[in-house]
């Protein structure tokens, strides 16, 4: 039951991260196309051959503040993907030497690093929260779009909280698995490397 809830949370966050990332890709493409069209419209050779087309293309341009939106969106996407990566053991590992160790030792190593990563996620979420409070207090905004910077911090903090919840579950499941020899994680764990 708890595993199903944890999986649901991880999948919802990954879906949200994917939607935001897709929107950022579209935004970047539109901005690059607009910038290219504007550059083409200002070219001397196009103005000489087809002045009406050149004039039309000069009305296009990059999306205003695109880099500000991309910066905020990427931060959220990273935190949104952490929970599913954590739950399915998708973090990169280098197991050249650990493959030679007995399974019991490997289970201990995995449980240890699961707890260490969860502690790190808690620290990151805490510091994000402190940063969020600081940005709310000082009212800092982005340069071009003038949207409050705390919005990006709040979105990233939501992803970090989800990552902490998943991390705590994974650490607990690994410790219980280490003690009992049972398996309390999704069956599709592990990254291909």
List the helices and strands and how they pair.
Blueprint: H1 2-41, H2 44-49, H3 51-57, H4 66-87, H5 103-138, H6 150-180
Helix pairs in contact: 1-3, 1-4, 1-6, 4-6, 5-6
Question: How would you describe what is shown here?
Answer:
The protein has 193 residues and is mainly alpha-helical. The chain has one domain. It is 74% helix and 0% strand. The chain has six helices and no strands. It starts with a helix and ends in a 13-residue tail after the last helix.
Kindly, what is the distance between the CA atoms of the first and last residues, rounded to a whole number of angstroms? 31 Å
Question: What is the count of distinct domains?
Answer: 1
- One letter per element, helices H and strands E, the order comes to HHHHHH
How many β-strands, per DSSP?
A: 0
What is the overall number of helices? 6
| Helical residues, percent | over 70%
Question: Runs with pLDDT <50, length 5+?
Answer: none
Q: What class would the helix/strand composition place it in?
A: mainly alpha
So what's the overall shape?
A: elongated
How much of the sequence lies in strands comes to: under 5%
Nearest-angstrom radius of gyration?
A: 23 Å
The main pleated sheet reads as: none
Which labels suit this protein?
193 residues, mainly alpha, elongated
Brief account:
This protein has 193 residues and is mainly alpha-helical. The chain is built from 6 helices and no strands. The protein is elongated.
């Amino acid at each position: 039951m708890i595993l199903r809830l944890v999986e649901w949370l991880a999948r919802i966050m990954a879906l949200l991260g994917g939607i935001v990332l897709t929107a950022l890709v579209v935004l970047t493409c539109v901005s690059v196309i607009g910038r290219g069209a504007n550059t083409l419209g200002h070219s001397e050779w196009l103005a000489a051959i087809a002045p009406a087309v050149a004039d039309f293309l000069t009305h296009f341009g990059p999306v205003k503040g695109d880099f500000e939106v991309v910066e905020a969106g990427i931060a959220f996407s990273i935190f949104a993907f952490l929970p599913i990566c954590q739950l399915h053991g998708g973090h990169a590992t280098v197991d050249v030497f650990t493959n030679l160790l007995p399974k019991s030792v490997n289970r201990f190593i995995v449980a240890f690093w699961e707890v260490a990563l969860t502690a790190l996620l808690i620290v990151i979420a805490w510091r994000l929260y402190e940063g969020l409070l600081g940005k709310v207090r000082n009212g800092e905004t982005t340069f071009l779009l003038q949207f409050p910077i705390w919005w990006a911090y709040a979105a990233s903090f939501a992803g970090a909280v989800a990552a902490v919840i998943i991390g705590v579950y994974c650490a607990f499941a690994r410790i219980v698995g280490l003690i009992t020899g049972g398996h309390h994680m999704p069956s599709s764990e592990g990254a291909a490397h």
